Amino acid sequence: MRLALLAGLLGVLLFSRARQDVIGQQTEPLRWIEAGAGGTLPAEMYFHNADGKLGVLLTGGPLEMKGHAFFEPQGINPRGCVTCHQPSNAMSVSVEAIRERWRVTNGEDPIFAAVDGSNNPKLPQALASSHSLLLNRGLFRVGLPWPPADKTVKPEFIIEVVRDPTGVNLDDTYGLKGANPTISVFRRPRLSANLKYVLSPDDVFNIKTGTLMAIDPETGKPASMNMMADARHLTLRQQANGAYRDHQEGRQGSLRREALEQIVAFEQQVYLAQSHDRWGGSLVEANGPLGLGPRALADGKIHVLANNNRDPVFRLFDAWKTPATMAKELTDAQREFRAPVARGNDVFMFRQFWIRDAAHINSIGLGNPIKRTCATCHNTQMTGQDLAPGWVDVGTVNYPTWTELPVFSDKAELPVFKLTCDKGAAPHPYLGRVIYTNDPGRALITGKCTDIGSIVMGQFRGLAARAPYFSNGSAKNLRELVDFYDRRFDMKLTEQEKVDLVNFLSVL
Amino acid sequence: MRKALLVLLVSGSALFSGGTTAQRREMPPAHRRNFVACPIVRDTKTLPCWLAEYEGELYFLGLQGSSASEFYPPQLNHEVLVEGTVTNDPRICGGIPLKPLRISVLPELNRACNTLLPAEDGLEAPAAVARRFSEDLRKPGTDISQREFIIPFDFDSDYLTFHTTRIVGEAARIAKAVNVAKIEVRGYRATTWLSNGKQFIETETIAAQRANKVGEILVGLGLPATAVTVISKNEPEPCDGVTDTDKRRVTVRLFTP
Question: Using CA atoms, how far apart are residues A311 and A304, in angstroms rounded to an integer?
Fold first, then answer.
């Protein structure tokens, strides 16, 4: 018995050591960059994760972080942009990294700032439970004025707080009935990388609304509206100033001009993607798939509609379909991994299912349901976003398809809102005029009933480095993400198809 | 299906009217099929077909396409207003084709509209019309001498489709090219004369919603707001059961100096 126990303990220790090596916590000095720490960011960086390595490329070359506005605190708290947009975490931040920061700093890291790094600024900040949404799901509080700050918006619905485990929406300072009525939702930080794709504008007209696209005030041209979860900021400058005020508690209204330009210039030169498999082999191979690794992102064309079999969203994976066409130097294990990746690409691109009751997909002239594929909506080459403004109610935040526990369960973590739409307003196309939601999404900006629960879809890049997924952090891993879609759209995926999809997503 | 129609007539935001005595005695032409029903989607080996049933007969509405297609399919969970003319063409997916045909997805939810039929041998979809890429559709193509533009709408809708936004875009392009002095945007609401003799009238505010939306787009496209006059005719257009679809519209007229 003791021998078995010892062997078990040794196994755990060996596993822990191996895990530590894979994660690279001890060996990668840039794994966590503290704001203000200084140092040099190399032009090429590689960071271990459970599925291999993430590659990050700075097309402008190495960068000195000391004095750089992205890496230095700008507001009154000690956060910088980098605090929540870490290169090792695909310019977002993973729950794994957040938990590690809690452990290492005993909860003192600036990422846990009360303003939005806790469930409610009035909770005792030393307790982990006060930061449970960040520690468990990687969610930051986003407080938005209600009614919207844009006084030309006439809300089509009223909002009631059904319940709020965080207490923040019922709080007399921060809540809907405070002096500055605010609704707080909780969302994941999005990638500040590969932005030439994200910011690439579509047509003059917005196919989602049948009206004109919003105009980028800096260029006078249509904006992409694909950067933020609710498309509230149109440009990098707007976003940087918003983050300065909301996340860094900046009190000057906006960033200094030089700081703003430095941040924007930096963000425009960062490209990232998974670069290596879990055996250390590069995913970028001669005659291999063309869409992998950060260089492919840096060199790729923008605004390519790719829901086709000629030049698919993440390019062709034909070389990995059979061992005969794979690179000769690969091991058996690597070959056995690449074949399902190629199959996963086929599932993503060509496996049809009924897409149903998804507002801003089915409701914009495509019909409900439509028999199409994942790539119908995730159609932009290289990122898998939507070429059009990508807000969709895919069902993650609205009852009854939401990922939350039942409304009256005591264990749910997110607030629940009841939105009641005016009789004269166009109803939500599939939920009507009374909607329960964790996050009204785009509707908090437009005030429209049809937009309730619509969230702008995110990039599919660097996924292995930044779990969890969905705007509400509800999918802990890629398998849970795939399972959600399988349930939501009754896809009837086989176990093999699920595994293939997970493998495919892990190399992006 | 008929039960679903009754539900709509009671709960819908549009106004149902029995019409005048004279109208009750008369009916739309016999070859017309104007009705409200739950749509039916039928799977096939290729593209899904859309159908609707009226008085025991099945009618073919169209195929699944893309947002650049001419035909925008119906939606389950919603009833559909069908306005079409019966043809002698062979059945498609089991339904009689209607040409011309306009369909409108009605905005209110109706969860009874939920029929999805499996694929069935012998009920195949026709080959899809070759897809026109959106880039082609975005090229200007209107004669610069054109001074009046008609933007059609679905019943009770102010949504501009991929195609109708193009019409507004062309109106703006030509208005700028000819240095327009005045632009008159006029919105209308209409009535559909259903095949059961009843009238289906659009909501009161829809004419103004349509006109305001088109006016805002023209200004957004760079035309001076002072040159754009927006008018809406709130009295519903009379119906004849044949041309009712053409009356749900906004007209844009350009006046040159």
Answer: 9
Dihedral, A43, A44, A50, A51 alpha carbons, nearest 10? 130
Mean pLDDT of B72-76: 97
User: In chain A, which residues have their Cβ closer than 8 Å to the Cβ of B138?
Assistant: 203
Residue count (chain A): 508
In chain B, which residue ranges form alpha helices assigned H by DSSP?
Answer: 2-11, 21-25, 134-137, 162-177, 206-220
Chain A contact present for B43, CB below 8 A: yes
Using one digit for the tens of pLDDT, what is the confidence trace for A97-121? Answer: 999 999 999 999 999 999 999 999 9
How far is the C-alpha of A159 from the C-alpha of A62, rounded, in Å? Answer: 48
The 10 Å CB-count burial string (b at 16+, else e) for A81-90 is bbbbbbbbbb
Instruction: List the CATH number of the domain containing B239.
Output: 3.30.1330.60
Asked whether the beta carbons of residue A430 and residue B77 sit closer than 8 angstroms, the reply is yes
Interface residue A398 vs chain B (CB under 8 A): no
The total number of structural domains that make up chain B: 2
Q: How far B193 CA lies from chain A's nearest CA (Å)?
A: 24
A434 touches chain B (CB under 8 A): no
- Would you call B159 an interface residue with chain A, using a CB distance cutoff of 8 Å? yes
Distance CA(A64)–CA(A61), nearest Å, equals: 10
> What ipTM did this prediction achieve?
0.90
Do B219 and B150 share a structural domain?
yes
